[in-house]
Design a protein that fits this description.
Length: 223
Amino acid sequence: MAVPSLQEISTQLESSNLRDRMVALASLRHIAAEDALPLIKKVLDDESLQLRSMAIFALGVKQTEESYPILVRILETDPDYGIRADAAGALGYLGDIRAVEPLMRIFYEDTDWLVRFSAAVSLGNLKDSRAREILRKALDSEEVILQQAAIAALGEIKDIESVDLILRFAQSDDWLVRQRLAEALGHLPSPKSISALKYMEKDSHNHVAEAARISLKRLEEAG
């Protein structure tokens, strides 16, 4: 199937038909980032939240000099919480370490759990130790999904000192929390991690037990 030209994509992005605009935006995956950026920008303020969400994700994948400031602006100013959450997630994909501070700030300031969840996940993706205090505090959140994100992110940033803090979730009633714990411990080599993982190998939920086995193997291979 022939890749449409930039002009064809640009024209299709102006279609009154949402499906046409979505197909056009999706076709940008074959286009170089610098060429794709002006076309992505055309639909960042589209009337369709679904299309805007796609465009924001595209900014995270198509890395250019403009991607970072655009995503931070959306994160900090957009009135729609879903769009702000998309921007937080895209900053994690972008991999720009400058995003750590705005993501930490939005985690403190935003009132919506979905935005804070996306920020926590992206802080883990960026693997920067500056986020550890925020992520440790997130362990005390009333939102279980935020606890899950914080546990996973602390593993991603390899915060060994958080092992004692996250081990309390080994007895969580939520198997997804226990699974995230088992996965995180695989990035946190310590005697306590190994002991906990051997215990979690016997977990009543298969996904948790399998995650524990994989993490134990990872720690053993890492020496």
